[in-house]
Design goal:
The chain is an all-alpha fold. Helices cover 88% and strands 0% of the residues. Helix 2 crosses helix 5. It is globular. It starts with a helix and ends with a helix.
């Protein structure tokens, strides 16, 4: 068991080191984005939502086709991939890179690797469910897709995308400031109260 844990830890460290090497040119930008997403300053959430709203309003106003939107997105990604590693050291100054920043960059890369592993693990469990319990697999997948299709039919696709993107951007800050755990605990307490009341009525 200990040998398996050590092997998993070594693989995690190796994958993290590889990701750090791949993202080294994006280090300053990633740290700046991390500070914004974790709400290091009180006005960061407002600025984040204002920027997101502005981008989606531009998309709504321009109303590009799917092909145009996809082409522009890929073009912006290519430009960023070319320009960011070149311009970031000049803008942020690589000579200011401290031990604390390096440690935080290492933590971010480690979290990204762990997230990737979780997604792969969920996919493997889904494939295992398909093999072991095909009826449950198809019933759960079809019902989930029907629910998503119904939501997509009721809500405008751009507005729905805006809500999802906004939630994902606010999620790190909500988690960092304990807001999610606070309201999750409140919800659990209310559910427990309801269950206890139901048990008393049954008695």
């Amino acid at each position: 068991m200990a040998e398996g844990d050590n092997k998993s830890a070594n693989m995690l460290a190796q994958e993290t080191a590889q990701l750090e090497e791949q993202l080294q040119g994006w280090g300053e930008v990633i740290l700046a984005g991390d500070r914004v997403l974790r709400w290091e300053k009180p006005w960061f959430p407002g600025a984040l939502m204002a920027a997101t709203t502005l981008i989606f309003l531009m998309i709504y106003y321009l109303d590009p086709s799917v092909l145009t939107g996809l082409s522009c997105t890929v073009m912006l990604l290519c430009l960023a991939d070319y320009l960011v590693p070149t311009l970031a050291p000049r803008v942020f100054g690589s000579n200011k890179w401290t031990t604390e920043q390096q440690q935080r960059f290492h933590e971010i890369c480690g979290n990204l690797v762990k997230t990737q592993r979780r997604i792969v693990g969920w996919w493997k469990r889904l494939c295992a469910l398909k093999e072991e319990k095909p009826k449950m697999y198809f019933a759960s997948v079809i019902s989930s897709l029907l629910a998503v299709a119904w939501i997509g039919q009721q809500v405008h696709n751009l507005f729905l995308t805006y809500l999802i993107v906004s939630f994902l951007l606010l999620l790190p800050g909500l988690n960092q400031h304990g807001i999610i755990s606070k309201y999750t605990s409140m919800a659990k307490r209310e559910i427990n109260k309801l269950l206890k009341q139901k048990e008393k009525k049954n008695e």
